[in-house]
Fold these 3 entries.
Entry 1:
Amino acid sequence: MATEENVIRVSGLQTRFGANVIHDDLDLQVRRGEVLGLVGGSGTGKSVLLRTIIGLMRPSAGEIEVLGVSPHRAPAAERRRIQTRYGVLFQDGALFSSLTVAENIQVPMREHLKLPQALMNQLAAIKVGMVGLASDACMKYPSELSGGMRKRAGLARALSLDPKILFLDEPTAGLDPIGAAAFDQLIRDMKTSLGLTVFMVTHDLDSLAAICDRVAVLVDKRVRVGTMAEHMRDDHPWIHDYFHGPRARAVAAYD
Amino acid sequence: MDDATAWLKTSLDGGQLELAAGGSWTIRDAAILESALQNVSTDGAKAASIELSKVTEMDTAGAWLVRRTALALEDAGVPTDIRGMADAYRPLERIVEQTADCATRPVSVPHNYWRAMVERVGRATCDSLAEGKALLSFYGETVVGFAALVRRPGRLRFTALVNQVELTGLNAIPIVCLLSFLIGIVIAFVGADQLRRFGAEIFTVNLLGVIMLREIGVLMTAIMVAGRSGSAYTAQIGTMQVNEEIDALRTLGLNPMDVLVIPRIGGLLISLPILAFLAEIAGLLGGAMMATMVLDVTFTQFVRQLESVITLNHFAVGMVKAPVFAYIIAIVGCYEGLRVGGSAESVGRMTTKSVVTSIFLVIIADAIFSVVFSTMRI
């Protein structure tokens, strides 16, 4: 298995809302098995880029491939097949509010696979344990959970089918530092065991430093990809401020 | 990616149970593996081993199946060791080891349908009673709110009040009048059809006038307003509740009762009587149109007949109800909105509930009015 293989390929991407161009001629490659963090100022279109890659939004120009399949142009059957290969965690978990946590986790299993109910229950319980929720959370409805717990439950659902690629939108925002660290550890474990590729939008500098192999910075409607160390040397004013601001220094001081 | 599907070979050799696993042990093949593992028998086995070196791919589902099998064998008194697990899968092994005791816990509350039914009936009864009580107490709060306003009229949010009158009154005029006009036509038509058998077509005018002014005009308006504005109250206030806007108001020293509830109740108290009045006129006009077309009654005759039957009492009986219905619709709408909690889903649920409750209470109130008026012989 070639480690340098690109699982996500974006080329010449342009996104616009009316006259407002968000991304222009944006190229991005995500390699198999890496954790890529995406950062950028407010309103630079981080979430938009993520939503475009997973096929929720249509770009005005450019090519996107996820695991070799275009999420916009491929036939529906092909798209469905790759949808089982990636999991998405939305900002607030996006749990189905009429289902319990366990039922939420079982939705993808029910839809795409035929498994005995007992096994699905066990697997749901394992996912809940994996993301660090207490086991009685299984029977709870999303409205009975706190924000952080909803996020973890959303992650459990994203991991339901043991995907190849995990898309995370601000995964550690709203988690306490212990939960965030446990989350980082979980991602690292999943990466080693499953060859998991992670594409995460984040502002958590600790997470960036701890688990991201490379960081993509959205500036001037494009991304600049590099390791943390490379970005530290970048003299683009925004990138410089981002990685040398007081918070970044605090992170560096602990290392 | 598409390695061979998962397989499991079992052999029993002198008390040593060998389970050789291979292929891709992932959730996609979990159904096959599940049934294969179910057929493993421990008869005559003294020790077992699970050989994993031929496994090409594994995920948490696969790791769990291995772990579960090992646990089951141990439980059956067969010591088991797992061999040949690739280092890459060690973290998976750790994950399922840590979560193994979670997996055996139930994920849903077991159901006993009869008990659940009785429980639901009981719960629904208690909930309705509690809600009736809470609604009554909310009514009390609004009265106190209005009383405070009488003492200090400056606290009335005049702009909000006028805005509510526009939204619930002015904007509702076309739809309310159109529907009432059509109902007037229907009543006149059906009434004329029946009364013609007695040669008493002209009494259609009486029927129409009395029923429109006393009952239908105001009742239909109230039902339409409950569907149109009562639901909007719940949805608006409920959405604010979900966004924590109500909490924000409280922390800014603003009382949601003054800012949100009083202007809405006041607005509806002004709008609904006006709407009801207009609806009555539209209904009478609809009836008049039908009468001139099917009854050979001229418009002048229609008006003269109407004048001879309708007294101020009929009109007053109808109009007296309007503010009461308005109050019911507005407090139910606001109350259910403030009870929204947690998720956006509950906004939808409460909105439905608000419409059903307010129409129900409006009709109950109408029935009470009818009884009271008939005993008073009005």
Entry 2:
Amino acid sequence: MSTMQAVKAVLGTPFHARTSALCRTNLWGRWAGYTAAEVYTEVELEYFAIRNAATLCDISPMIKYRIAGTDAVACLNRIMTRDVAKLAPGRVGYAVWCDGAGKVLDDGTLFRLGEDSFQLCAQERHLEWLLDSARGYDVSVEDQSEAIAALALQGPTSCEVLKAFGLAGIEQLKPYAHQSYESVIGSLMVSRTGFTGDLGYELWVRPEQAEALWDRLVEAGRLYGITPVGTRALDLARIEAGFIMTGADFVAAAHALRHSRGRSPFELGLGRLVDFDKGHFNGRRALLEEQRSGARYCLVGLDVAGNKPAAGALLYHGRKTEVGQITSAMWSPTCKANLAIATLRRPYGETVTENLWTEIYVDKELKWERVKARCKVVPRPFFDPPRRRATPPLAF
Amino acid sequence: MAGHYDIIVIGAGHNGLTCAAYLARAGRRVLVLEAAGQIGGAAVTSELAPGFRVSTCAHILHMLHPRVVRELGLKGAGLDYAARDLPTVALDAEGRHLTFTGDGIAAQDTEALSEADRAAWPDFRARLLRFAAALRPMLAEVPPRLGTKHGGDTLALGKLGWRLRRLGAEDLREFLRIAGINVADLLEENFESELLMGAMAFDAVLGTRLGPRSPGSLLSLLYRLTGRTAGGPARLALPKGGMGAVTTALARTAKAAGTEIRTDCPVARILVAGDRAAGVQLESGEEIKAGLVISNADPQRTFLELLGPRHLDTDFLRRVRNIRMRGTVAKLNLALDGLPRFTGLEGAALGGRLVIAPDLGYLERAFDHAKYGEAPQAPALEITIPSLHDPGLAPEGQHVLSANVIYAPYDLKAGWDAAREGFAEQAIAAIAQYAPDLRQYIVAGQLLTPLDLEREFRLTGGHWHHGELALDQLLMLRPVPGAAQYATPLPGLYLCGAGAHPGGGVMGAAGMNAARQVLAKEAA
């Protein structure tokens, strides 16, 4: 008897055998063509594990590119808004890149692997854009998304886990640095980076190393409360960390159907990543013009009164004038605050920060109630523990 | 002050010279740099054989903008016509030719042209000319930008809309109906004479990568009809001394206004300082500084080679790389030691523009080959014998024959260097079907394929017009959004060539408009 079989349109990552065995909820989301566990057990448990122990999150679906060649710095400098030449080998930098209109195509992390070699990690696919941008430069661009499996090990005990795993000298690795280590599963690259705003690492291996890495880390982390976490808990941690996310807090310019939806780095609060002095880069002229004429929007962190998460809520000035919208929001158990990331029409949120209100709709057993809550503009990150930067991290 | 310029114009083609002349007259110090040994670009006359001179590339003047002629005083600068109101003769193998004169049409008998066609012609022609007249003012205007709140853009768009609206409901409806369709459909709606339709369709597709049944081929015909030179709309003329006379007159005007012109000076790259065009570096290594650089080179050459991708945004470069500009026309020039006899063609008609495109299917089949990178088995041609009007072009009693041959696809699979001779032979054979004694008079010949045009005249893709003249590459889309108002994304760099609005043909409007835009936007 034959059974019908579909060609899988969504793939499992190199960790799938492990993650699927542990996923009690069987709640999976799609991430760049892969299944990613949204929740293994309970979001809250996983969230608290991120803040109090060590957690494993499969980030293999992340899009990864290798950009290498004698013109790698020049080529990346024409793509990125920041000065890539200032990123030293062994360092990781946060970067955004724009289209010609100065609207952000994506944000990501740029690993300088060597003098002429980089790894770019992104949310969206950009191979064509990178290849087109690389024309005229002595540089190669390769999609490494399938060639590299990645695991985020995040939380206050994460360094201890890596020590137990056997990475000699890992405690000396500084924030936003990366290095290769020898281990029981062979050599691997470790970066002190992550999406949680806490002490944490990301581990980069070949797909065939993936399962062994997972097993060895789980074994090494037994005493340190190691817990697999899904994308939902990770999203809570990233809001506390104040990180914006493509597709959540802004629409990637290449995906925006309404051309006014695109956002410049200035409009995303990332003006510090724009370096006008390094020569031409994509969007430079448009951004200079924007700097002259003024951005349309600003992106801010908000402390919302009360405890009702204000996701998607509209913002008002003086309870009447609509001035913006909340894009990410959560009640933060760690900060004991009702946090939000919001986009406002300038000058609201920038020079006009008083008298901002939001309107939250609350479902009380199918009875919707409207809550008007006052909002205060606060600096990001909302959660910024000293352990995030301490080198060596505090031992447990 | 010698050696110090406000503006460098790259390329001494007709648009570069026009632009330079306007700017010099406005008091700017202009230097024109020409890569070739002579000025003129593709509007040149050259010696084909001792004693024989011919318009090397462009050979019929039908679009030279009257404002350019008037404002720059080209007649005073030596521009004269050897012939005006050149008739077009649609050649028939049996000698039953059709002759288009001005707005009329003539044939020997009803077998060549039916009564119905004869009756339909005046209205058909008049209507196309009305449409062309509505579009004509745009030739001399800077195209509006879309999506701005700038008053000038809104006004320009409004003017375009108003001109079309003024056609009246019936004409406007018809214009909107046909603007995007193919010329063959429209011809078949109106006529039955294959010869008439073939000749009309030839005009629509000449210089484009379209067949008569390709969408948009009607628009290309309208574009051609917007031309107004030598005294009327859609008239054909031969400049005395060949096409080089036009650029010679332009150069004379430009020089008289103080423009300096240097030939044999190929530009290697455009210099950039502080995100602004700062001058050029010649292939010789010499650097020449200027506050503004205006390129008469085609947009791909300008942006991808002379400026280079590093100064431009990736999405802009994508648009530039995607400009459709693969040429399809070869130029055949023959030196003849006698006048060939075309069957059934007498007297003045021989001096007209002779078209070999006997029917729509003939043209479409020729195009089919080009589509697949092949040379057609039976090419279509446009032939002139300019020495009949301009005896100075050849020794007494002898002649030059100048012909455009389609389709000659730039990207010929067999490779042009291998196929050139065979193609020339086919073109001559095609003419010989109508002029059987042609071969005995040929003393010298030259075939310029699109590849030759690219090599010798620096036309990327060998495309006459620096890019197809089609809906997606016209007006505010020409050459690409972001550079369609002559200014480019790089401050201080402008375009003035056929790649910019309103496009090619020896018209000079792009150069004129570019100069006007530069004067409006850049303080002296």
Entry 3:
Amino acid sequence: MAVVTATAVLSPLTPSDPNAIHLEDQLALMTIKHILGADFHGRDVFSRLVHGARVTMVVATVTVMVAAVIGTLTGAIAGYVGRKVDAIIMRTMDIILSFPAIVLAMALTAALGPSLQNSMISITVVTIPAIARVARGQTLVVKEMDYVQAARAIGVDDASIIFRHIIPNCLGPITVQATLYMAVSILTTASLGFLGLGAQPPTPEWGADLAEGMRYMREAPWVAAFPGLAIFTAALGFNLLGDGLADIMNPRLRE
Amino acid sequence: MQGMAAFAIKRLLLLPPVLLGVSIISFMLLHITPGDPVLVMLGESAAPGQVEALREELGLNAPLPVQYARYLTRIIQGDLGRSIWTRSPVLSEILLRLPATIELTLASMLIAIPIGFHLGVFSATNRNASVDHAVRLFSLSGVSVPVFWSGLMLQLVFAMYLGWLPVSGRVDSWAEPSRVTGFYILDSLLTGNSASSVSCIRHIVLPAVAQSLMTLALVSRMTRSSMLEVLWEDYIRTARAKGLSEQVVVYKHALRNALIPTITVIGIHFAWMLGGSVLVEVVFSWPGIGRLMFESITKRDYPVVQGNLLVYAAIFLLSSLVVDLLYAYIDPRIRHYKR
């Protein structure tokens, strides 16, 4: 169930139509000539959805990847070195986590100036603590394991230990978290876009398009409905994937 | 309860550095803006006199550490500055709208928790039946739905097409209750204004439902998995062997232990919802701190943004503390731990 649906949803990765987004300036909103209708500017909703998919996937992937790298490193270092370094790092994470994610992302993006790049930065910042926590947790467990103790006894330097032993062992749970956070990132990007803080027009972005469609809800609800459906499907796909991964990881760990 | 007190104190001690960090982030918000923040706030065409005046007022001419020191002293005293737009104190603007958000969050929790809970229990007790799968799919969907979309769809169907419920706002303008607590529903009940109560309740339904979805989904999932874990434990088998009815087994024994992680999740979600209300408030024009955040960001009213951020963090930290203490209270291991 999990994997099948996930792969079906991951197909938005293909930016098939290199369609011009600015189609003939026909007035708003029809249905059949444009498969999913057109928006107020006459742009084809379907093409915007597809191109928006590319934007969304890029944002989600980049933010989560960067957050994962930074988070894993920080968490592993915190867990391994312990004491003061650990305290400082985790307090910083706590500080970031004291704000509701969307609110902080909003504020950061607004301060830096609303744009796609800035929203990506904000989302990355907000995602780092969660991953760091997972990494740290795993590190604490792995740290005590025999082969790590052995390596230290032989005199292998700490950096090598972290990179060759600890981090590979963190990857499992982190992959699960990262996948789930892809879904979160998609939703947050869309939310920021919806609020006008993400991609700026005319860049197609699901959230921003939805906000625009909001104005014509009565006459043409499909302009808002479809981007939302897209967001939902993408997020659902990653959630399913993440769940599936989590299930796979568990029994294996118990072996 | 010695362990509990120690735990509480330890927990409280963690607060000051976090609060400090929070204040730093809030402070820095103004300063990470590329370009001149004052120009951003007033607009490019502002008169130089105005610009200078604002700069003086915000103390931006002093060196950074001095600015921060002043900032910190002010917020400790509760002075969050003045809104650039309305010139009224930020704190009062926030406090004016806070009850609206709390009311919305409470309503959402009221919907999410009982329904989510029963769905979870139902799902756990009928494991792998088609209903179980349905509930699980629903849960996953609930977590994946963008809140503003569900809000919009609800608006579309129930307000615009069916006309059963109002589209937006907190209350019809003619039905606004006299302000006693700021919680409209409570106020209208206290003053005996039934027309107002009805109006308020009608207005809160859609936004509360929209906001409850994610928590509902999560609660049902958590309940389901905790119950599943517990249902196969030894003491449950003992209870069954004793001949107790399935009903008793489930409700008396399994539930109590399954509750613990669920309660933590609920607590976290209350805090989270307070922040996540931004989107719902924007869609439904609900006059809470979420919408304030959005509006002040749009208007570049930095003092309000900063103050709002601080308040959010404060609320979040406070609720986390309460949740932790509650959790410690419920979990006997922490309670009876003695050094």
